[in-house]
Design goal:
79% of the residues lie in helices and 0% in strands. By secondary structure, it is an all-alpha fold. α4 packs antiparallel against α15 (264-298) and α7 crosses α20. Keywords: Cell inner membrane, Cell membrane, Membrane, Transmembrane, Transmembrane helix, Transport. InterPro entries: DctM, TRAP_DctM. It is found in: Cell inner membrane.
């Protein structure tokens, strides 16, 4: 047990010195294995684990979904989605902010990355809201919370990583994320409407012009069809997530070529960005597997499972403990780091308590989503602050009512699992 705590200290020290989470977990796991088994057996485990985890076919979905998002962003499709939503909703009080949430849902279905979605919103939606006399605090807060929808709404990279780490069906996770994602967006819109009617932070925008709204929507229509085809193929059992991702890449490439918005330089940049992001995620998955192997050899996971089986604590209490732990981790770490650190221990505990792995995955990603907004790290808030120039303290104050709604949605998902599991139960296997 002393060795285990020493390895945890080593992991904490490496992270404190800002070593990437993948390398920190890999080094700590290897050192632990070397102490437990010896250097030669540890190297053998390292070689086998790294190959087995990184050679998984399901990982093919990650670079494809990332490339799909990069192509659409480089092709200016995402900016046009924001303009279209603003044309339809901007004329009502708080409409521009609600349009930003609506555009965030579309972006979430395309980008799959919360920070990328937040950055895109900060660059386009924030200036538009400020031009219509929205308060800095509300505009920056809406940009921050809107970006978090990409964590739950498919095709979420976080859901893919959770599926790989826990060997849970990624297709079912994608479908399960639809209703919670839309429920979250509706909750954010309700908060915006309440703020608009009780304060002067969100005045009306430009008058509604049907011709302008229809004209801006024609650029978004192909993108919407593509999303429906990708998710529909998974839902109908016509394609695996990896095959649907390939369909998404092909469709996005066709869209940006026909709209003549993609240059060779932008295409090259998109491929490079997708490769960098993929390498980072695969490294996290592989190094997490090394650390998980160390936990297996120390029997820490087995000890926790025995505790769960013999404790007098209720299932709800243990689940609450897991949620609180994830929320605390979210105050200091990004979502992929949380998954790679927590799932080797939390997932076996949840399965021992007979929780559904798909439902647990959505609850975990929803909890991680809230962590993107909580201080002191609040990664999305930092991205929004860097892009907009609004002070961090002002944004953190602005997101408080939205955080309350996020927690309310999380509690709803915890108390009513069928909200999450209804759509996956109808899937064609």
């Amino acid at each position: 047990m002393f060795t285990f705590f020493a390895i945890l200290v080593l992991l904490a020290v490496l992270m404190a010195f800002r070593m990437p989470i993948a390398f920190a977990m890999g080094i700590a796991g290897f050192v632990g294995l070397a102490v437990q088994l010896g250097v030669s057996p540890a190297l053998a485990v390292l070689e086998r684990t790294f190959f087995d985890s990184s050679a998984s076919f399901i990982l093919v979905a990650i670079p494809l979904f990332i490339l799909m998002a990069e192509l659409l962003t480089a092709g200016d499709v995402t900016r046009r989605a924001i303009i279209a939503c603003q044309a339809w909703l901007g004329h009502v009080k708080g409409g521009l902010a609600m349009a930003t949430v609506g555009a965030s849902v579309l972006l979430a279905a395309l980008v799959g990355s919360s920070t990328a979605s937040t950055a895109a919103m900060a660059a386009s939606a924030f200036p538009e809201m400020r031009n219509h006399n929205y308060s800095q605090r509300l505009a920056a807060a809406v940009v921050s919370v809107g970006g978090t929808l990409a964590v739950v709404v498919p095709p979420s990279i976080v859901l893919v990583v959770y599926g790989v780490l826990t060997e849970t069906s990624i297709g079912k996770l994608f479908i399960a994320g639809i209703v919670p994602g839309l429920l979250t967006a509706a909750g954010l819109a309700v908060v915006i409407k309440l703020i608009a009617h009780t304060t002067d932070q969100a005045p009306k925008g430009d008058p509604f012009v049907l011709k302008k709204a229809v004209k801006t929507s024609r650029h978004v229509f192909p993108m919407t069809v593509l999303v429906i085809l990708v998710i529909g193929a998974i839902y109908g059992g016509l394609a695996s997530p990896s095959e649907a991702a390939a369909l998404g890449v092909m469709g996005s490439l066709i869209i940006v070529i026909f709209q003549r918005t993609l240059t060779f330089t932008k295409f090259n940049s998109s491929v490079s960005s997708a490769i960098r992001a993929t390498v980072m995620i695969v490294a996290i998955v592989a190094c997490s597997a090394i650390f998980s192997n160390y936990l297996a050899f120390t029997r820490i996971t087995h000890t926790l499972l025995e505790f769960v089986a013999t404790t007098e604590m209720s299932r709800g209490m243990i689940m609450a403990f897991i949620i609180v732990a994830l929320l605390v981790m979210g105050m200091f770490m990004d979502q992929l780091a949380i998954l790679s650190l927590a799932m080797p221990l939390a997932f076996p505990m949840a399965m021992a308590l007979d929780f559904d792995p798909v439902w647990f995955g959505i609850v975990v990603t929803k909890t991680v989503e809230i962590g993107l907004l909580t201080p002191p790290l609040g990664l999305n808030v930092y991205v929004a602050a860097a892009q907009t120039g609004v002070p961090l303290s002002k944004i953190f104050r602005g997101i408080l009512p939205f955080l309350a709604m996020e927690i309310l949605v999380l509690l709803t998902l915890l108390l009513f699992p069928q909200i999450t599991l209804w759509l996956p139960s109808l899937m064609v296997n």
